[in-house]
Amino acid sequence: MDNNFIAKLQTEQYLIGSFDAYLNTTKSLIKVNSNISDEEVNIIIENMPTIYRAAITDKNGQYIGYIGLFNVDGKNSITSIRFETSKNLKQKDKNEILNEFKKYLLKSLNITDIEEFIYKTNNLTEIEKKEIIPRYNVIIPNKLLIPGISKETLEKFSKNYSIPKLHMPFTIKSSNKIIGIIGLSNLIWPNKRANLNIFLDKSLGGDISNELSGYIIDDYINYVHESNVHNITISVNSSNQNMIDILNNTNMNYYGQIPFSAINGESIESNLMFQHIPNMKKENNIIPDDKSIPFSLLDTEKKELSKQIELNNGFKLVSPKLFEDLNIDLNQILEDHIKALQNRQGFTIPLGNDKYILQKGNKNYGIYKTLMNYNYIILNESNKYYGYISILRNNANKKNAEIEIAINPRFTHQGLGRMVINRVYEELFSIGYASVTSAVFEFNNPSLKLHEKVAELNGIRLDAYYINGKLWNMNFYSKTNDLIKDKLNSKQI
Question: Model-level pTM?
Answer without folding.
Answer: 0.89
